[in-house]
Amino acid sequence: MDMVDTQRASYKLLIDGKWTDAASGQTIEVISPSNGQPFAAVARGGAEDIDRAVKSARKALAGPWSRLSATERGRILTKMAGIILERAEELAQLEARDNGKPLTQARADMQVTARYFEFYGAAADKVHGQVIPFLDGYTVTVLREPYGVTGHIIPWNYPAQMFGRTMAPALAMGNTCVMKPAEDACLSSLEIARIAMDAGMPPGVVNIVSGYGEEAGAALAAHRDINLLSFTGSSEVGTLVQQAAAKNHVPCVLELGGKSPQVIFADADLEKALPVVVKAIIQNAGQTCSAGARLLLDVSIYEQFVAQVAERFKQLKVGTHDMDLDVGPVINLQQKNRVERFIKQAQESRVPLLAEGSFAANLPAGGFFVKPALFGPVPRDHSLACDEVFGPVLSALPFKDEQDAVELANATDYGLVGAVWTRDGGRQQRVSKAMRCGQVFINCYGAGGGVELPFGGMKKSGHGREKGFLALEHLSTTKTVVNFHG
Ligand code: NAP
Ligand code: MG
Fold it and tell me: Which residues are marked as active site?
């Protein structure tokens, strides 16, 4: 049976290598954020489907998958990377339509997605155990082993990339997986799951159960027979997921929200910083966990630099995914209302709105469009300075010296990413060391960084690490074997 019933453009669940309807028989409409219209449907998976998927993953753990060498597992992932690259344009079109992001950004996402499978495919056989010198007559080895069945819950903002980021290292280490993608954008996840099957993944190793968070997601988080849970999403749901997992003593990797600062000193190369600062907040319509949402400026350059950023903001154009402009729609009506509420509250409390982007002509009436907005100076205790908007809203704040800059950079509950712009080498080191976050960029901004670079949060931004070799450690466990041989 194929994954898509073409008559209804209806996507099914992947469980035990078979495309199947939800036990309830129900589906969820898939909406294009560019016009608010449904264009496909996905199965509405629930607790029963999650249970079937976990059972299939458990069974697969004892099957042919466990007998593959690490090199052979890696080859399947490398093959997936190749197919993703071959189908990159088609996948990018699907992702852009499903999520609303401008096509150019979706194309870039597919290259990154392929990189995850390439990186972890090549890394699969490079994670080695240890031999520990011990007492005379003993040989002690520390084996790296898969956790077993891993559960993965991902958000809608970078679905294909998130699939690669969380699943590729889990598979490289020999786990079997059950994923619950976000109902707002899950088509690329279903397509990549098909690619896994095409690349020779044994049945049951990759299971995908689409559905609502409160149904399928909660059932996965609370399932007694998973061995690790990897969650990417909001801090609030991260708490719920960790509470559910704690009941079964299931460890969690949590990648949560952020309110990341760009700290710019007066000696920085401001010309270089300008386009980077703008891109860091408008990419994916600001719906990026590592968006550079706070612009912290040395008071001596505040007016001058903010005026330049405002000029750039005024030029920003918002359009549908296929218009491929600077900014696409946000994901859904709820998110549009949320961003607009932040903007309205800021205006009500008289935070100066310095600049806005504009809508392209003839936008579809039902699309979820919001204009990028620059506010400043934002009072330090204002919600716009502290809370994650998850939209294209940039808050500018002045600071008076280095110590003040560090305090301000660390002044939110989050700690995902930060950037420091200065030509002073000592200051680069001091400030990056003092920042409480998982990644710091000096005179650049990578919005999350390359696939090789360990990534993850401090404080309310989560714990555990993804990307790079560290992800392989977080998605596997160890067994110490003590052998007395006299
Ligand atoms: P969300 O509401 O937390 O949803 C994330 C995922 O959790 C979705 O698949 C969602 O399903 C599911 N979910 C919702 N309620 C659940 C529950 N009670 N139990 C189990 N799963 C549940 O987050 P979002 O609004 O989609 O995404 C935005 C947030 O994600 C932002 O805070 C952003 O910063 C964060 N994020 C972080 C990273 C990172 O790497 N640190 C990356 C991307 C995004 P449904 O949506 O289908 O209901
Ligand atoms: Mg959608």
Answer: 255, 289
Note the pLDDT of residue 8.
45
Around 371, how many Cα atoms within 13 Å sit in the side-chain half-sphere?
A: 17
**pLDDT value at position 4?**
56
Q: pTM of this prediction?
A: 0.97
- Over the stretch 22-72, which tens digit does the pLDDT of each residue have? 999 999 999 999 999 999 999 999 999 999 999 999 999 999 999 999 999
Question: SS3 letters for 177-237?
Answer: EEEECCCCCCHHHHHHHHHHHHCCCCCCCEEECCCCHHHHHHHHHCCCCCCEEEEECCHHH
Q: Which ligand is nearest to the CA of 38?
A: 2
| Mutational test site, ligand 1, from 250, 289, 339, max ligand atoms within 8 Å of CB | 289
Compute the distance from residue 35 Cα to the ligand 2 centre, in Å. Answer: 10
Is 387 near ligand 1, meaning CB less than 6 Å away?
no
Select from 1, 25, 76, 52 the least CA-distant residue to 209. 52
